[in-house]
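Milestone M4 deliverable, item 7.
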Amino acid sequence: PVQRMLGRLYLSLGESQIGASLLEQGLRGVTPSGRGDALALAADLDDYSSALGSLERGKESLVVAQRAAGLRNRFAPGDPVQQLYIHDQLGFAHYRSGDNKTAEQEWVQVLALADRIKDPPRDVVINTSQTLSAMLSFDGEYKRALEIVDKGIAFADRSGVSADSPLRINLLRARGDALLKLGDARAAEAEIRRAIAVQQKTTGDRGS
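Output delivered:
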């Protein structure tokens, strides 16, 4: 447990290599004793999978994400929130493995589940929205990219995410990028300026 906790702390500091190493040690041979333990283990596996992905170890990242999915399906079958986590992490693992099509399919399921869940995890839904939008924009699907990020912004609005929340920064960036690719430079500039303003406020608040 100590190694897993330290691993998460190092990841929060941006130290992916150290964090991944600690999580690997802390997760080796661990067997959950019940539902709560299994879901905590799955969450740590998510972090480990993300760390591996950031280190460009995509195939290993996918294996770990699949292990987390197995735990959730075994200990929380039919739980829509846990299914949302499964599709989110598998999406990122496939994305980091270079399989954009499968990543898209997983993330579309995340957004579909979010529409059916009363109170879905806001950070996951928002992060999925902006990442899927950015990927679609990179792949040349600019209109779909704009549609996805607009839905993400609408979700943030409905969920009560404040206008100056850092959760909105990447949504605004993704929207600006899609608008620029669609030829609307003026609207894109406005979105990027909004993103910069939120980021500056966030940095200022942390530094005060």
